[in-house]
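Sample intake — Glyoxalase/Bleomycin resistance protein/Dioxygenase superfamily protein
Collected from: Epilithonimonas zeae
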Amino acid sequence: MNLNHINIVVQNVNKAVNLFTKHLGFSLIVNRNNKMAVLENDHNFALVVWGQELNHKENMPEYPENFHIGFYQNDEQAVWDIYEKLKTEADLQFESEPKKIRSTFGFYFFFEKLIIEISVNPFKDNIA
């Protein structure tokens, strides 16, 4: 069974599309009037970016505590490269520079209310 997609809710669909296409390896499949977009990466994983206005509610929903999405990189240098590029983007908040986290190396940042993790795959050497 393959995961079809994940849906994230954001205030600004265009800023999210820019982040995911410019820095995180996604390609835009469709952008529906800047209210909802579908992106895909090289691993056939789809990300649905849902604009808050489509919820017909005033406030952004809160993500559950510790909810985040993560992207594995091949090595520490790749993590540093993405970090340096992301630092040039306005409106992103960083928890810290890349560092040892749990049994890997990476960092977390916030896009609006969504936490995103960039790290080295801690399991890649243990996969048989």
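Post-analysis note: Strands lie at 5-10, 27-32, 36-40, 46-51, 68-73, 92-94, 99-101, 104-111, 114-120.
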